[in-house]
């Protein structure tokens, strides 16, 4: 790859990190979902799970992506949250449009040539998996269960489950922590640096990221059809989480416009990704 292509790839990686960082704090929007619909998900997974195979290249990629993500959080997270607070329905339709705009890229990455009943089944399986998270008992990780060895092990498991939300598209970390009843306690522990709580949670998180990314990389390489379409089901499940209802009156054309804007933005980036892959392949 020549210097120009490398520079273009680095700029595109930073731009995608910027978008993911800016949106990952939005309730109901997961970083994994945005990475998938932007076409950078596979690269992130392989860079983490196979880091030692090409340390220099993976490190450069992760640093560029992380810098873009941090900049996105600093620049866009707060304005986006304020927009959502003032215009909740149009903004949610923007994100739903973004998910829809990323679907063609996911289907293309899966290598599927036509829709079959088996593929539809994979999508439904992923959708059910996300919706089933709401059935988790809300008091499983309550303060009453968080003492001694039992508490340590429960927080270890909670960290592992949180890693799944961090790595897998379709579920936001904040949403999962709310379901587990750990959101307020985690925020308080971070603000006060309460290590007895953060340490087991962090160990479970790191362990989960390493193990899950390795399993995902193998699944995406060995079984692309089920893997990509189950992930597509995850994404559709996340739409249920943020769906604000049917707009009425003046909100209807506004939401149609914001949906179209979200779809167009991601679809355009997907086309850039396709052109980049075509240039690399030549």
Number of E-type strands: 0
What is the count of distinct domains?
Answer: 1
Span from first to last CA?
Answer: 10 Å
* Helical fraction: over 70%
Number of helices: 12
Run of helices and strands: HHHHHHHHHHHH
Largest sheet: none
Integer-rounded radius of gyration: 19 Å
Would you tell me the overall average pLDDT?
81
Low-confidence stretches: none
Main structural class:
mainly alpha
Structure notes:
The chain is mainly alpha-helical and 282 residues long. The chain has one domain. The chain is built from 12 helices and no strands. The chain starts with a helix and ends with a helix. The mean pLDDT is 81.
Short structural description:
By secondary structure, the protein is an all-alpha fold. The protein is 79% helix and 0% strand.
């Amino acid at each position: 790859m020549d210097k120009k292509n490398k520079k273009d790839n680095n700029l595109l990686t930073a731009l995608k990190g910027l978008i993911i960082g800016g949106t990952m704090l939005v309730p109901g929007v997961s970083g994994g979902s945005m990475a998938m619909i932007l076409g950078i998900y596979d690269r992130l997974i392989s860079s983490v799970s196979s880091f030692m195979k090409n340390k220099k290249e993976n490190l450069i990629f992760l640093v560029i992506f992380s810098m873009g993500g941090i900049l996105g959080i600093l620049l866009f997270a707060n304005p986006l949250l304020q927009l959502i607070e003032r215009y909740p329905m149009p903004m949610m339709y923007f994100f739903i449009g973004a998910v829809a705009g990323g679907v063609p890229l996911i289907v293309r990455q899966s290598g599927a040539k036509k829709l079959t009943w088996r593929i539809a089944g994979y999508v439904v399986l992923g959708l059910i998996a996300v919706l089933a998270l709401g059935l988790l008992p809300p008091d499983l990780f309550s303060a009453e269960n968080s003492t001694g060895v039992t508490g340590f092990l429960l927080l270890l498991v909670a960290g592992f489950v949180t890693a799944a939300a961090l790595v897998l598209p379709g579920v936001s970390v904040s949403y999962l922590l709310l379901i587990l009843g750990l959101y307020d306690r985690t925020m308080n522990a971070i603000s006060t640096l309460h290590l007895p709580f953060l340490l087991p949670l962090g160990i479970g998180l790191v362990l989960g990221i390493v193990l899950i990314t390795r399993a995902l990389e193998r699944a995406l390489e060995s079984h692309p059809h089920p893997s990509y379409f189950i992930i597509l089901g995850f994404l559709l499940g996340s739409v249920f989480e943020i769906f604000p209802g049917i707009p009425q009156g003046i909100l209807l054309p506004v939401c149609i416009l914001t949906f179209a804007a979200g779809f167009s933005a991601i679809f355009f980036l997907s086309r850039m990704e396709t052109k980049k892959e075509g240039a690399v392949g030549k």
